[in-house]
Design brief:
By secondary structure, this protein is α/β, with parallel strands linked by helices. Helices cover 39% and strands 16% of the residues. The protein folds into 4 domains: 206 residues, P-loop containing nucleotide triphosphate hydrolases (Rossmann fold); 175 residues, P-loop containing nucleotide triphosphate hydrolases (Rossmann fold); 158 residues, no CATH class; 54 residues, no CATH class.
Length: 660
């Protein structure tokens, strides 16, 4: 199956160039906000967040009255990104120096490390590195006032949650409420897979946000010029021979000549055989014959059955601490593409894992978290002179008829589609949208369409602009995160493939979700945010062509002059239809039938707003056909109109009863 997404980039080198202080573009942007007490840095993998934190922390320690800096990472391996670094060699005013005693991302229990953490607070040392777990343990019984004049930096901040059962989230809430500590939060993706907000709106509003997007990062690379994202399907087991084919789905997808990270399915997923070590064995068998293992490094040497060359394989699935530490140390110290060919992992090699030579991230089994997908893709999108193309492949089990898991499998597939759609939008250049007013006409006539700030600025008639700073921040920094939350909503997943009118999706479902996520927004700002979500999604999924000096955008199967776009026209387009249509061209008729049956079987709760909106269409239907819409129709839109008729009748009956 061809890639759902293929994006080419400009190789400008901009994102890798450094200024007089040794800062790359993203780091310079983050450093400009260094005086904020609460700072949220949202930037993709490999953009340099760890070093950006070093610059900011050192300035706070020297110039802002901060006495100590504590950096917390999700797992020990990521702690290496914050080890001692000589920044003065590139022009900065100080070096980042970590005492080995207070680098707690080493062997040992969290309880013993928590004791060292508390010792650090009373010591003369300034910098400590620890895991999220150590931070949580250390806070049991700790007076938050001990953290006054301290910087707390949380890497992979999406691990925090506003859920009351999330201990890290509770720790962060207490730090902000009961001390004057500064907080720097860093993440490559701010949305969680469970749809729980990272922070409550009132806490999130306290953060100054610095955003550096995927497009800026990848377009500014030196070597990498394209990225492909594909979803492929298999039946039975991924490591067994496929029906009517000579090899397994894994063998069909796996290219031994590409530096590859293979993530096997979670042991709790339907795709897993529940025997993770055996799955590693099946992958090695797919590659060739295991000849030996290096006792010092843990590297497996496998003779390829395709080319007879020796492949170097790293097994990160092995739970044996001694074996895991050996291979992890080898990978950490490797500085050449030839050091390893294939990495097999389960929970590791996702967040913060630095193997710049990786060309292919092959993930087996559906991933429920969009964050996890973006993190895994990030393993392959580091810039390196050994590659010009990066590839993410998700190998997913096809739902089979006559099984109890069909509904789950189909729902997983729909979520996979939404993940691909979101990634397509994350990887594209950002557009700026402005209101097109009547007095713009004369300027357009004299200056042409190029009058706008830049080529990515589009003016729209009837477009609503935000009135509060909160709404402006959401639009400028959180739009992709908001789309992720919308796309993960159960009602939206059921509506996305086109069985609900576009206007209902755009004007009923989307604002409802926005109100749930941002209850503090006024009605006017909910509408402004809604319009930006819909417009950005529609435009990014539309074809834009230039003819005769004017730009035309293809919407609803017709080209419209970009100068004539009105918000009412955009609201007639399903912003999330494209990904489903792309996928529907590539999967089997049987799978599409299962998806259709699944969608038809699920009833979407009707609201009065939706029923009222459908009423003109119902009247038009009756006038055209002479019959009321049929509840048993195979046409989902006719069926929905029939449900609206029943709903309105029930509403009318209830009102009549209340008036008696």
């Amino acid at each position: 199956m061809p890639d759902l997404i293929k994006v080419a980039y400009g190789q400008t080198g901009k994102s890798k160039k450094t200024n007089a202080f040794g800062m790359r573009e993203m780091q310079e942007r983050a450093y400009s906000a260094r005086t904020a007490q609460y700072l949220l840095i949202k930037a993709p993998p490999a953009s340099g967040k760890s070093r950006a934190l070093m610059f900011i922390a050192l300035d706070k320690l020297k110039n802002q009255g901060i006495k100590k800096a504590i950096v917390a990472v999700p797992e020990k391996a990521i702690g290496a990104s914050f080890s001692t670094t000589k920044l003065t060699e590139q022009g900065f005013f100080a070096d980042w120096t970590v005492s080995p005693k207070y680098n707690l991302c080493t062997a040992g229990t969290d309880n013993s490390k928590a004791k060292t953490f508390l010792e650090f607070l009373d010591s003369n040392e300034q910098i400590l590195i620890c895991t999220h777990a150590t931070l949580r343990f250390a806070f049991d019984g700790l007076d938050e006032k001990k953290l006054n004049d301290t910087l707390i930096a949380i890497d992979e901040f999406h691990h925090v949650s506003a859920d009351g059962d999330n201990r890290l989230g509770e720790v962060m809430k207490n730090i902000m409420a009961k001390s004057n500590a500064h907080v720097v939060a860093m993440t490559g993706s701010y949305f969680r897979g469970d749809n729980v907000p990272v922070l409550l709106p009132e806490d999130e509003a306290k953060f100054t946000k610095v955003t550096y997007n995927y497009y800026e990062q990848l377009n500014g690379y030196e070597f990498l010029k394209s990225l492909g994202i594909g979803y492929h399907f298999y039946t039975g087991r991924y490591f067994k021979k496929q029906p009517d084919r000579e090899m397994s789905a894994l063998e069909e997808i796996l290219d031994e000549h590409k530096k590859t990270i293979i993530h096997i399915p979670s042991v709790n997923s339907a795709e897993s055989s529940k025997e993770k070590y055996e799955e590693v064995g099946h992958i090695i068998d797919a590659l060739g014959d295991l000849e030996s293992q290096d006792e010092k490094t843990g590297v497996l040497y496998v003779k390829s059955k395709r080319s007879n060359r020796i492949l170097k394989v790293a097994d990160l699935v092995n739970d044996n601490p001694k074996e895991r530490d050996k291979i992890s140390a080898y990978l950490r110290d490797s500085n050449a593409p030839d050091a390893i060919d294939i990495i097999i992992a389960l929970g590791m090699a996702k967040e913060g894992f630095d193997w710049p030579y990786c060309e292919h991230a092959l993930t087996i089994g559906y991933r429920g978290s969009l964050t996890e997908i973006i993190q895994i893709i990030g393993r392959a999108t580091r810039d390196s002179n050994n590659k010009s193309h990066a590839q993410f492949t998700n190998l997913i089990a096809q739902p089979e008829a006559e099984t109890d898991e069909v509904k789950v499998a189909v729902n997983n597939m729909l979520k996979a589609i939404t993940a691909s759609l979101l990634m397509e939008q994350v990887l594209a250049p950002n557009f700026k949208f402005k209101l097109k007013e009547e007095d713009d006409e004369e300027e357009d006539a004299s200056a042409g369409s190029a009058r706008d700030d830049d080529e990515n600025t589009i003016r729209i008639r009837g477009f609503k602009l935000p009135t509060s700073q909160r709404a402006k921040d959401i639009i400028e920094s959180d739009l992709n995160d908001l789309k992720a939350r919308i796309l993960q909503d159960d009602q939206m997943l059921k509506a996305m493939p086109g069985n609900v009118e576009a206007e209902v999706i755009n004007t009923i479902l989307i604002p409802k979700i926005i109100r749930e996520i941002y209850p503090d927004l006024s009605a006017e700002d909910v509408e402004a945010v809604r319009q930006h979500v819909v417009v950005d999604s529609v435009i990014k999924n539309s074809v834009i062509e230039e003819q005769g000096g004017k730009k035309f955008v293809r919407m609803a199967n017709s080209f419209v002059n970009i100068d004539d776009i009105h918000i009412d026209l955009i609201d007639q387009v399903n912003p999330f239809q494209k990904a489903f249509e792309i996928l529907s061209k590539s999967v089997t008729t049987q799978v599409l039938k299962l998806i259709d049956e699944h969608i038809q079987a699920i009833k979407i709760e009707m609201t009065e707003d939706e029923a009222v909106m459908l009423w003109p269409k119902i009247k038009e239907w009756i006038g055209r056909t002479g019959e009321a819409p049929n509840l048993q129709s195979y046409d989902p839109k006719e069926k929905r109109m029939a449900e609206a008729v029943i709903f309105l009748r029930e509403q009318k009956r209830q009102r009549a009863l209340n008036e008696q």
